[in-house]
Each structure stands twice: as C-alpha cells, then as structure tokens.
Amino acid sequence: MLKKIQLPPSYTFIQRGKALLIIKEEYKDLLLQQGIEDIETFLQTHQDTARYLHGRILHPSIPLRDGERMVFRQYSHGGLFRAVTRNLYLFGARSVRELALTEKILSSGIPTVQPIGAIHRPTFLLIYKAYLLSLEIPDAKDLIQYFQEIGRHPSRERLLHKRKTIRSAGRLLRQFHEAGFFHGDLQLKNILVAGGRVFLIDFDHSYQRKILTTREMKKNLFRLNRSVEKWRGLGLPITRTDRFRFFQAYASKDEEIWKVMRKTLRTYSIRYFLYQCRWTLQRVLYK
C-alpha cells in the first residue's frame, strides 16, 4: 500500500526492521547515521539540544546542520476517543500521504514547511504509528501566538502589520483553494507567520482535486471561522473587522464567493452552538 503512493523522485524508501522510512535524498545519510529508525533512542540522544513546539502534543525540534532544525511530529488522535486511541492508527499511511501532498503544495508555489521524511512503524497486525519530519521555519509563530503578541491596543506600526498579515492569509487561502487543495483541519494553529510571510501547515486529512467545489471552500472557511470564535471566547484579540478584512482579501471581487460567505454566516450561530456542545462533551470525557 505504501509503495503505491507517488512520491517525488528526490525521496527514497528504506526498510529498517519493522520501520519503513521515506527520506529526502539530501538528508538520507545524515539521518541514517544518527539512527533515525530507532525513534526513542534518536530522541533521547538529542534531548539536550531539543526544543518543543506546541501542537496537539509537543513536537521536538532538533538541530540538523548549518542552522537548520528538524521538527519531529508524531501523529496523535483528537476528538472524543483520543484518550483511548492516542497515537495508534489502523490501516492507511498517514505520514507518507501527507509528505507527498505537502510536496505537491510546495510545487504549486504555496508557502508551507519543507518535509524531509516520514516514518511508518507497524506495532501489531494492521496497527501502526506515524511520524513526519520537516524543516522548522525559523522564528515562526502561529496566528494564535501572533495575535496574542499584537495585543488589544497595538501601536500604529503593529496595527498595520496585523492588517497586512490578515490580508496575506486571506489571499494565501484563496491561492490554496484555486490550486484545488482542501485543508483537512484549517484553524489558527495551522497558519504561521514568519519574516513577513504567511504559511499553511499540517495537511493530514487534506487532498487535491482538479477543481475545488464551492461547498468544500465553504467548509474550510467555516472551520477557520469556528477556530476564530473558539479563541475569541478565550480572550484572543480578534475583531469583527479583522475577520471581514480576511474574507475581503479571500473573496476579492468574486461575487459568487461573497454569496457563499453571507449564506454561511446566516446559519453560523446554530452550527457553532452545536460545536460548543461537542467541545464540552470532549473535555468531560477526556478528563
């Protein structure tokens, strides 16, 4: 199944014991010399130089070469049953598929992380663990961190930067959709800001079509807006004007998209209430 996934020619399949490694050619010797196939030992060896990035779980960032750092991301479940299933998966090859898709996204000119490898490690029968390796974007902040640092009463310079960033995020998502990509988990944590640029990340459950439907675009926009509402409720300083500026940059002069967004907002309050109920249930069950 894994070898049916089409990868760019710059990657190599390597079998080491039970683990199947897919590594970018220019990093193959370096990672194999460090014993990347033995994940626990590899991380233990680098614990003194690792720093940790926040996601659903902490992701170690480890120095590689010439100032580069590698982010080591282990896949883990969300949702109602994450306390039970945690980092175990049945069927599929999540990290390999995401690596291949991320390379397609990069080749479409969309700013994102540079993947350098994926690990698929069977544990029992069809159950496996998955890991994705990518280069860290230096000094990157997700939009939650970015808005927290901007604050409620920014200086004029910071305010202008904030507006520019929001417009850039809107145009980037439109570029992403026009290239036929659908994001499987579009939320504030999966949009990064670094060096005046905006990046989309985390393409698990994402896919590409020749042409994305209006319904799929709407689903992505609704998911992002839901993330905004959730964090606004926790005190994140995002205004209605900020959201309008994002949608304006996304829609530009496309009247059809404006119609879709207006229709979405008319039904938003009911749908958001249902999601609030689900979040409450998740917190109770997880505890």
Low-confidence stretches: none
Q: Specify the biggest β-sheet.
A: 8 strands, antiparallel
CATH topology of the largest domain: Transferase(Phosphotransferase), domain 1
CATH architecture of the largest domain: Orthogonal Bundle
- The overall average pLDDT, rounded, is 86
Query: Compute the gyration radius: what is it?
Result: 20 Å
CATH superfamily of the largest domain: Transferase(Phosphotransferase) domain 1
General form: globular
State the helical fraction.
40-55%
Strand and helix order: EEHHEEEHEHEEEHHEEEEHHHH
Number of domains: 2
Instruction: Just give the CATH class of the largest domain.
Output: Mainly Alpha
Strand content of the residues, in percent? 15-25%
How many strand segments? 13
Number of alpha- plus pi-helical segments: 10
State the separation between the terminal residues, measured CA to CA: 37 Å
By secondary-structure content and strand pairing, the structural class works out as alpha+beta
What's the assembly state of these chains?
single chain
Could you outline the blueprint of secondary structure elements for this entry?
Elements: E1 11-16, E2 19-24, H1 25-33, H2 39-45, E3 51-53, E4 59-63, E5 69-74, H3 82-85, E6 89-90, H4 94-107, E7 115-124, E8 127-135, E9 141-142, H5 143-150, H6 156-178, E10 181-182, E11 191-194, E12 197-200, E13 207-208, H7 214-233, H8 240-251, H9 255-266, H10 268-286
Antiparallel strand pairs: 1-2, 2-7, 3-4, 4-5, 5-8, 6-8, 7-8, 9-11, 10-13, 11-12
Helix pairs in contact: 6-8, 7-9, 7-10
